[in-house]
C-alpha cells in the first residue's frame, strides 16, 4: 500500500510535465501559424490590386463556408471514436476512413454547387469568366486539401504524434506565406 502511494506523485509529475510540453508546443505552434497567416494576409492587402483582392475575399468566404459545411463536426467526432475504440489502431483506422469518406462525399456535393454558383456570383460582381473559373479552381483545390489535411492532423494528434502534426500546421502557414510572396 505504501509503495503505490509513494509512486503516485512522480506519476502525476510525469503527466504534468508531459502535458506542459504538449500545451507549450501547441500554443507556440498556433501562435506561429497565426502570425504566418497574418503576414500573408497583410501582403495580400497591401500589394494586391483592389479588384483582385475583392475576388480573393469572395473566394475565401466560399472556402470558409465550404470547409464548415463539409465537416459539420465529423472531424472532431474522431476524438470520441478514438476513446471508444480505446486507441486500437485498426478500429481507429476504420473511423478515420469513414470520416474521410463522409467529408469527401460532402465535398463532391458542394463542389457541384460551387462550380455552378461561384462563376455566376463573380460575374454578377463584374468579374470575367477566366478570373472566376481560376478562383473556382482555387476554391476547390483549397477545400479538397483542407478536407484531408484536417483529418490527418487530428489523427496524428490522437496517435500522440504531436510534433509531426505541429510541423504540418507550420508548413501550411509557410506555404500560404510563400504563395503570398510569389503572387
Detailed description of the structure:
The protein has 183 residues and is an all-alpha fold. The chain is 89% helix and 0% strand. It contains six helices and no strands. It has helices spanning 2-47, 50-71, 77-84, 89-124, 129-158, 162-182. The chain is flat.
Number of strands: 0
Strand content: under 5%
- Given the helix and strand composition, which structural class is it? mainly alpha
- Following the backbone from N to C, one meets helices and strands in this order, namely HHHHHH
What profile does the largest beta sheet have?
none
* Number of helices, where a helix is a run of at least 4 consecutive DSSP H or I residues: 6
| Helix percentage range | over 70%
- What are the segments in which pLDDT stays under 50 over at least 5 consecutive residues? none
* Overall pLDDT metric: 89
End-to-end separation: 67 Å
Which descriptor suits the 3D outline?
flat
Rg from alpha-carbon coordinates: 21 Å
Helix/strand layout:
Layout: H1 2-47, H2 50-71, H3 77-84, H4 89-124, H5 129-158, H6 162-182
Helix pairs in contact: 1-6, 2-4, 2-5, 4-5, 5-6
Q: Concise description?
A:
This protein is an all-alpha fold and 183 residues long. It is built from six helices and no strands.
List the main descriptive attributes of the protein structure presented here.
mainly alpha, 183 residues
Amino acid at each position: 500500500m505504501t509503495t503505490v502511494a509513494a509512486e503516485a506523485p512522480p506519476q502525476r509529475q510525469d503527466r504534468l510535465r508531459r502535458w506542459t510540453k504538449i500545451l507549450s508546443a501547441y500554443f507556440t505552434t498556433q501562435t506561429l501559424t497565426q502570425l504566418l497567416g497574418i503576414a500573408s494576409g497583410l501582403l495580400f492587402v497591401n500589394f494586391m490590386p483592389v479588384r483582385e483582392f475583392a475576388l480573393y475575399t469572395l473566394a475565401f468566404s466560399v472556402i470558409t463556408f465550404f470547409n464548415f459545411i463539409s465537416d459539420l463536426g465529423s472531424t472532431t467526432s474522431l476524438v470520441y471514436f478514438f476513446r471508444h475504440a480505446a486507441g486500437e489502431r485498426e478500429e481507429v483506422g476504420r473511423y478515420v476512413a469513414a470520416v474521410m469518406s463522409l467529408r469527401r462525399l460532402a465535398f463532391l456535393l458542394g463542389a457541384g454547387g460551387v462550380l455552378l454558383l461561384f462563376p455566376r456570383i463573380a460575374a454578377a460582381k463584374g468579374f470575367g469568366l477566366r478570373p472566376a473559373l481560376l478562383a473556382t479552381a482555387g476554391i476547390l483545390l483549397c477545400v479538397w486539401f483542407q478536407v484531408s489535411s484536417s483529418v490527418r492532423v487530428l489523427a496524428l494528434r490522437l496517435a500522440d504524434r504531436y510534433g509531426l502534426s505541429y510541423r504540418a500546421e507550420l508548413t501550411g502557414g509557410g506555404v500560404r506565406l510563400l504563395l503570398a510572396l510569389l503572387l
